[in-house]
């Protein structure tokens, strides 16, 4: 139940990242759909560098919002979901970011802003899984919806040129990926559902709730965001200049061969321990470095309306 009475019009809360450059009148778009569907005046909250969405989502619930719409990229979506997970208030998506990975994995047309708003106010509700990631260095629990990773993929996020990102979008990640291809593996121990699955040198460990990343590349071919399972991809390219070709071949073959350049696993909990600290990312946001994280599936914890 929300704070609104049964006779008052429903109200949507919009949590928007003002740093995202958009070529539409977001306030006008939201107002139009609220009027057309008999909703009250929307509540507006802007994120900041200090608070990228968590505090605003809490304020939205405190003011009785009937739906909280994340208007931004995957970072804004993740912060709003952190507050709404486990509750009854649904989340809507107005994809304004570079990747918009959750929206894309849900099959949304990320250029159809009218469709996104209509879906948020009058669409169908569905429940999806969320993943809780607890680090021990520092001791911190965060939530993610799409993918987290340590190693090479997180280094890409850390080294992506923001100015280039604004100009060419997700292709900026390709630039960072090429520049960071050279590098040394880190010895990792990966425990899945209490059993050691990997204990060797790797370049990247990625844990996914969805299958696709930037450019439509499918990292986790078996991933479903409502199956209650985490999907794990371990990348360990062979030595030499052609080492990454073994990773590409392994990903095309979806890890079915005997080559250990790419290995896939599934489970409900994943614990990653590195020999030394390496880059760490959640849903495309670089979160510093760490050497230990425990990721736990929280099935059906978030309600989406779209």
TrEMBL record:
**Co-factor requirement:** Mg(2+)
Q: What SMART domains does the annotation carry? A: DAGKc
Which keywords, in A-to-Z order, does the entry hold? ATP-binding, Kinase, Lipid biosynthesis, Lipid metabolism, Nucleotide-binding, Phospholipid biosynthesis, Phospholipid metabolism, Transferase
EC number(s) per UniProt?
2.7.1.107
Matching entries from Pfam families are given as: DAGK_cat, YegS_C
The UniProt GO MF terms for this protein read: ATP-dependent diacylglycerol kinase activity
Q: Which InterPro entries is this protein grouped with?
A: ATP-NAD_kinase_N, Diacylglycerol_kinase_cat_dom, Lipid_Phosphate_FormReg, NAD/diacylglycerol_kinase_sf, YegS/DAGK_C
- Coiled coil regions in record: none
Specify the DAGKc domain's residue ranges. 7-136
Q: Which PANTHER family match?
A: LIPID KINASE YEGS, SPHINGOSINE KINASE
Family statement drawn from the similarity comment of this UniProt entry: Belongs to the diacylglycerol/lipid kinase family.
Q: What is this protein called?
A: Diacylglycerol kinase (ATP)
């Amino acid at each position: 139940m929300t704070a609104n009475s049964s006779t008052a019009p429903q109200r949507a809360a919009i949590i928007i990242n003002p740093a995202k450059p958009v070529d539409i009148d977001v306030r006008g778009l939201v107002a139009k759909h609220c009027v057309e569907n008999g909703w009250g005046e929307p509540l507006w909250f802007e994120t900041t560098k200090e608070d990228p969405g968590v505090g605003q989502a809490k304020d939205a619930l405190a003011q009785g919002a009937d739906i909280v719409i994340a208007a931004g990229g995957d970072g804004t979506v993740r912060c709003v979901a952190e507050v709404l997970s486990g509750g009854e208030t649904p989340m809507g998506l107005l994809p304004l970011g570079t990747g918009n990975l959750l929206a894309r994995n849900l099959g949304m047309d990320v250029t159809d802003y009218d469709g996104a708003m209509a879906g948020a106010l009058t669409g169908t509700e569905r429940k999806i899984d969320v993943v809780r990631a607890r680090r021990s260095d520092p001791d911190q629990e965060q939530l993610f919806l799409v993918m987290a990773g340590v190693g090479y993929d997180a280094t890409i996020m850390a080294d992506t040129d923001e100015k280039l990102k604004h100009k060419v979008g997700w292709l900026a990640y390709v630039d960072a990926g090429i520049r960071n291809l050279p590098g040394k593996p880190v010895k990792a121990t990966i425990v899945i559902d209490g059993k050691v699955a990997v204990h060797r040198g790797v370049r990247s460990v990625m844990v996914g709730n969805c299958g696709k990343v930037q450019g439509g590349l499918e990292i986790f071919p078996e991933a479903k965001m409502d199956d209650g399972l985490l999907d794990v991809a371990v990348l360990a390219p062979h030595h030499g200049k052609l080492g990454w070709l073994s990773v590409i071949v392994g990903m095309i073959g979806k890890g079915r061969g005997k080559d250990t350049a790419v290995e896939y696993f599934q489970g409900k909990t994943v614990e990653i321990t590195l020999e030394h600290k390496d880059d760490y990312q959640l849903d495309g946001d670089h979160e510093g470095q760490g050497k230990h994280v425990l990721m736990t599936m929280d099935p059906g914890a978030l309600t989406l309306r779209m």
